[in-house]
Every structure is written in structure tokens, then in C-alpha cells.
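Workshop exercise sheet. Pairs work together: one partner reads the sequence aloud, the other fills in the structure field after running the prediction. Swap roles for the next sheet.
Pair: D.N. / O.F.
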Amino acid sequence: MDRRLGASLAAEGLGTFLFFVVGAGSIVVGTFAPDAAPGLVGVALAHGLVLAVLVSSLGAISGGHFNPAVTFAVWVGGRIGATTGALYIGAQLIGSVLAGLVLRAVFPEAAWAPSHIGTPGLASGLSPATGIGIEAILTVLLVLAVFGTAVDRRGPRIGGLAIGLAVAADILVGGPLTGAAMNPARWFGPAVASGFLDNWIVWIVGPLLGAGAAAAVYRSLFAERPVEEPETLGDVVVAASVTRRGR
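Structure field:
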């Protein structure tokens, strides 16, 4: 295996592991220590802040995806090959399962069992179809943040700040509804470690649907692309190839 690819896969696995240990762990802590329970805002900040740190610190190595939906979006956007993308997703899933197993080992069952180690769940009265729609919409915001600040070279170089803020904002809105995973691996690891697989389709299809749609829209409407535009040199009009924002 190419050394650079190996480093990227290690970064994706490690980053996903740390992301979920902190993110899902903040939910388990709420049961383990009720007096110090972070609540919805605390859970949103735990996810958003740790993701911002990880994207900023490991993004130069792997791109800082830590999310199969983001990797899928980057593939749709033409920025990663299918084989490399599949390897990224494999590393992310391994990291997510390890995170779930570590949380299960560290906390007593009475702490992790009620939330199934922080596995996302549907609110009472919501159908899986509605859950898929919610997850798709939430993921659109996340992927737009990724493309606008990390993928597009014209974007502001602000590390993982915008990406972390997008995740935190989505959790504040969607957390009580679907858990606001926006990430198939965020569901997969805790679900496998806890054995809670209910409504799995919501957190697989929803994020992938939203990620693919956001990437396709960004690529077709907003991405840079060369076009022919007339340019005047003195009295002579010539065709000049320039890079412009898609319309």
C-alpha cells in the first residue's frame, strides 16, 4: 500500500474513533453522571468542537472526512477515486466500531444501555421516511460547509470551524428528532457495539442522499470551471479561457 494512502487511512480511522468517543461519550455521560449531564447544547458542542479540532489537525493528511457521507460527497464531486473512497469508508467504520466498544467497556451497562451507547434513534411518532428526509436535509448543510471551506480552493481557510459549527447547529435542531447523525458511521459504531439496529435505513440512506444531492448541486452550480469568454486586446477581440463560478 502506498505510504501516503496508509497515512490517510490511519488518520480517517483515528479521527473517526476520537470523534465518536467524545460525541457519543457525551450522551453516555449524561446517564452516568446526571448532575453533570451536558444536555442538548452540551452534546451539540461536544460533537461540533471535537470535529473542528480533528478536521483542523488531520485534514492536511486525509482531508478530514470522518464520515462515509462526506467521502461519498467528495466522490460525487470528483475529488476522490472510488477505490480510495471505499478504503476511507472502511477505515471510518472500523474507527466507529472501536469507539463504540471502548465506550461500552469504560462505562457500566446502566450508563450506556439506555441510549445504546449514543446510537441515534427516531423520536416517537416519526416514520422512517420522515427520518430519512430530516437526515438528508441536515447533511446538506454539513456537506455545503465541507465543500465551501475545505474542498473549494476559493473558500476561506478556517480549518474545521465551519464544519464543526454546521454539525453543532444541526444537532440543536435535529437531535431530538433523529439524533442528527448526518453520518452513517455515527450510527454504525454504537449500533453494532450495543446491538441496537432499529430503523437502520434512516442513518444510511438519509445522509448519503443528502450528501450526494449537495455535492451534485455544488459541482454543477458553484464549482469553478473553464469557459470561453471574449477578451479585448486593443481593437482585437479574442477568446480567452477563464475560470468562473458555475451558473
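Discussion prompt: Strands lie at 224-233, 236-245. What would you look at next?
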